[in-house]
Amino acid sequence: MTITVNSPYQIFAQNELPASWKKAFQENLSNFPHQLRSPLKSAWEIALHQEFPSRKDESWRWMDYKRLNLESLMLDPHISPMSLSVSHVFRNEENNSFTNPLPEGVVVTTLKELFASNSDLALKLLSDQRLVSEELFTALPSALANDGLVVYVPRGVTIDGVVQCYLDLRLDNRLAFTRNVVWLEEGANLTLELIWVNELGSQAGFHNGIMDVHLSDRSILHLDERQQFDLQTWNISYEVAYLGADAQLNWNYAAVGGDTSKNYIRIEMEGKGSQANLNGVMFPVNGQVVNLDTRQNHWAEQTYSNLLFKSVASQEGRSIWHGMIYVDPQAKKTDAYQSNKNLILDESADVKSVPGLEIHNDDVKCSHGATMGKIDAEELYYLQARGIPAKEAELLIVEGFCNQVIQSFALETSRKELIDHLMDRLTV
After folding, report:
1. Is 0.90 surpassed by the pTM of this model?
2. How much is the average pLDDT of 313-336?
């Protein structure tokens, strides 16, 4: 079906790529070595032949980007859209941070800087093109991004403490395409926190990014991620983790900012014995729309995944979660679970929850659950009966509801910031 301006299925105001993006792509090629220009050209060709998503796609059904005018946003292929600030934080010394020393061979930098300092490593880390052909908004950053975050940990290296990265995007009437890579070699161990923010501006902007997370055999990654864009930012991101044999991933995600944000988070358990725990929290207010789309794909035997995502919606905020567990015929002895719990604080808020299972092996243990409701009247009465004012009692209940996820974040300062964000939203 052709999507037209008057179609009820249309999500974007335009359904063609702006003409200026072709010139931007051609100019962006000069930012990359010759070995990568062919894959970039392939990504651009894929983008040209992909249709814009429509409401006929279940995962986009409740999204609306028509207020975003892609034609009017600036795209400069010669200037990086982001700045990176890196700290090395130790849990018992969170008030002190250090930029050095990280163990020898560890790389935490931008894509531009890596090409300048170690082009061979950059070529290796960008060799995986699996995300490119998925759909329009994976092909576009693959072709148009001129920068992004790169984290690389060599074989057998363990990093004590937490590597914390602030990724500050320039989004005032601008487009920002980013391509990001986190790569752990065999037996590496890292705790990493990513905080996505943007410089405050008076006009709306749009970020479209992809992130590949590669965990080689027996590597361990604890990844805390916070999306804290301002309320004029529009966002679409795709993030995929590929797990080798006996690799372990703990991934905590908080969606705080953005006018409208759609985030794909997918785990590919490709190695026998790989394990993944995913926790997420979102609290949209003031008409925000936050959509988290999760996939737990089990390809190998004896793999394990557990997912818990929670949302608190109020003041016309909209929370949408799509979840799927897939088990391949070869993935016997799989153990997988997903749970989505939602708290609706007023009648103006809207919550959608769509769990799913696709199981092709009968020697597995898989299940899912979803709940939604209002604050429990008995809990509220219990607290008020002990002298706690109604509004304060409500905030305590909401904090307790989110705390199970928030306490999974590694740093106490980050946990406190998330609680403060939540409380600020609810006291406006």
Report:
1. yes
2. 96
Q: What is the rounded distance in angstroms from the CA atom of residue 223 to the CA atom of residue 345?
A: 29
Instruction: Name which of 117, 188, 101 is nearest 152 in CA terms.
Output: 188
Of 196, 179, 190, the C-alpha closest to 115 is 179
Q: How far apart are CA 114 and CA 147, in angstroms?
A: 10
pLDDT in tens, 11-61: 998 889 999 999 999 999 998 888 889 989 999 999 999 999 999 999 999
User: What residues contact 97, with CB distance under 8 A and at least 6 apart?
Assistant: 87, 88, 89, 164
Tell me the two tokens of residue 189. Answer: 């161990």
Report how far residue 293's alpha carbon sits from residue 297's, in angstroms, rounded to the nearest whole number. 13
Rounded Cα–Cα distance for residues 278 and 301 (Å): 19
* CB-count burial class (<10 Å; 0-12, 13-18, 19+) for 215: buried
Domain locations along the chain:
20-375
Return the bridge partners of 353, or none. Answer: 321
Cis status, amide bond into 141, omega within 30 of 0: no
